[in-house]
Amino acid sequence: MLKHKLPLNLFIVKNLLTFIACFSCLHTCLAQETVEKKNNIIDDVYERYQAKIDSVGKQTIIGPYTAYIRRKTVAKGQYINGKRAGVWYYYDADGKLMQQFDFDKKQVLFEAPEPALSSIHYRVDYVLTDTDRVTPPIKIGGRFFGYLPYVLQIRKIHRLRGLDTDPCRAVLNLLISPMGRLADCTIVLNCAGSDPITFNVETGGIPIEEKIFAPATYNGKPIASTIEIICHANDSGEISIN
């Protein structure tokens, strides 16, 4: 029986392509290392998740995500290729459900009612009548977990000013566009024995996903609004929403 033999140059090319394919597969596998991550967010709040790390150190969050405060869950959901997906659940520091949000449908499924004496206030530039229907803006992430990135901004300014030893009243003002995006952020610090100081926060330093809100509505139409949050900074540098 006659056997067909490849010419030498074709044999070399074939084996070279096989080598390149194997090397490419090996490189891809090495570049997609998956690691378990645990990070502190602020004070007693920390997060756990998995991330793929590529060859240049870029991190992409995947799979289940959970955030805790003193072993109580304050946020849980799924990441797909670095983006939040499906229904997420957000809780307060006592474990009470504050919000359910569907990231696939971009829809608030549940928002816990605000207490009568809330430290969070809302303003719109309309003269309202008894027949008008107005809904406030909603921070994706709930009124506890969702505002933690902004509490961090207050802490940075509090420490930058060297005020850690002084208790301060902080008022956080967030301007939200009709598209549900953070348009402006200011912090007013009123510390013991001093005049109030207003700081303009550089919003570019806030992660994009933390600048997303469900916008306020006026008779069914999305409108601009302002969220005012009254906080307290104690002499240990801890920030809390009153």
What strand order characterises the main sheet?
A: 1-2-3-4-5-6-7
Give the overall shape, derived from the CA principal axes.
globular
Mean pLDDT: 85
Instruction: Specify the number of helices.
Output: 2
Q: What is the number of domains?
A: 2
Classification by helices and strands: alpha+beta
Compressed to H and E, one letter per element, the order equals: HEEEEEEEEEEHEEEEEEEE
Total strand segments:
18
Percent of residues in helices comes to 10-25%
In whole angstroms, the N-to-C terminal distance is 91 Å
Low-confidence segments, given as residue ranges, are none
Instruction: Characterize the largest beta sheet: strand count, sense, and whether it forms a barrel.
Output: 7 strands, antiparallel
Measured on Cα atoms, how large is the radius of gyration? 25 Å
- Percent range for β-strand residues: over 45%
Structural write-up:
The chain is an alpha+beta fold. It folds into 2 domains: 34-112, no CATH class; 114-242, no CATH class. Helix content is 15%, strand content 45%. The chain has helices at residues 8-31, 148-160, and strands spanning 33-42, 45-53, 59-69, 72-80, 83-91, 97-102, 107-111, 120-123, 134-135, 138-139, 168-176, 182-191, 197-200, 213-214, 216-218, 221-223, 225-233, 239-241. The strands form 4 sheets. A 7-stranded antiparallel beta sheet has the order 1-2-3-4-5-6-7. Strand 15 (216-218) and strand 16 form a beta hairpin. It is globular, with a radius of gyration of 25 Å. The protein starts with 7 loop residues before the first helix and ends with a strand. 20% of the residues are buried. The model has no long low-confidence stretch (mean pLDDT 85).
